[in-house]
Amino acid sequence: MPKTLPKNLNFHSPVLATVAVDWLDIKQQGRYIDATLGGGGHTQEIIRRGGQVLGLDQDPEALAACPDLDQLTKVQTNFIHLGEVAREHGFQNAAGILFDLGVSQHQVEEPSRGFSWQQDGPLDMRMGTTAVTAAELINQLPEKELASIITRFGEEHQAKAIARRIVAHRPLTTTRELFSLVGRPDQGRRVFQAIRIAINDELGAVTTALPQALEVLRPGGRLVVISFHSLEDRLVKQQFAAWSSLGQGQILTAKPVLGERGSKLRAFMKKL
Q: What is the pTM of this model?
């Protein structure tokens, strides 16, 4: 009988929560890794269906927000260390692994975290505690490098002009100051995304973690990834295709499953 568990929807309401756990195909007492624990929404559903979970998150606020549950082991770490942490806690033959990439609802809505162009706060944008802040990056990088980041990670066509304005008005300390130099809201979203990705090395982290996930999975285990922008989704799609071509497993989602806020879910099963 599925368990009834508390929910913490104030920190983060996960998209595709039920669908993602469906794709994991939960087995009773199976061991699962939630590589992006957040407020524990996905993890609680996995446990409700009978699974045991190793939950990782580099954000200490996320770990504090997630309820302490009998079948959950919480670890504060970046998922680039997934393989090492899985072995330390006996999850090296996991039945499934879930990544919910991007920022949490709490990180966006809490002004002190500095993630959103819609609220004034300090230029921080760190998901964990070890990266440089957005203010440090913006105020120290040469104009050419800043424009390159905005182009590459934000796919913003006016990157050079925006970078020029930023450099001319430095130092910047708040999100409102940065947004005032950007222009339109759609540009603000792209610029803030670019800086956030650069600070947290989000694409590098995905590239590092996915091979570890395949190694940690048991034969027949499932890997489910939810992404929120084309750069992440492209990395996942290409990695799954490469594994499939090498006979290392099977792509379960011929096309991505679409969800709220532009999210896309892809699923892969390791070869039996």
A: 0.92
